[in-house]
Model the fold of this input.
Amino acid sequence: MAYLARLRAEHAATLLLHSDQPVTCIGQAVGWPDQNYFARRFKAHYGLSATTYRARFATSAVHLAPNRAGGLPFEIGLRPGDGGRSAAS
Done:
């Protein structure tokens, strides 16, 4: 269970930094539908609330956009499977 909680917290941190989704939606997306439980678990893992984490670290993060199929997000300007080369290259 600790492994799953760590994965959820890390995925939530990624979403907080690379998307504009509300914190409650991110909690639901990672498998913690109860907002209060998500807040407790995230703070236990990172020592910061999700909102504080986003405010402190999101300014230097690259924002991601969902792919056309609505699946996992990819960095703007990159295509899945292009080995990190930009679409403009």
About this structure: Residues 15 and 45 are 15 Å apart (CA to CA).
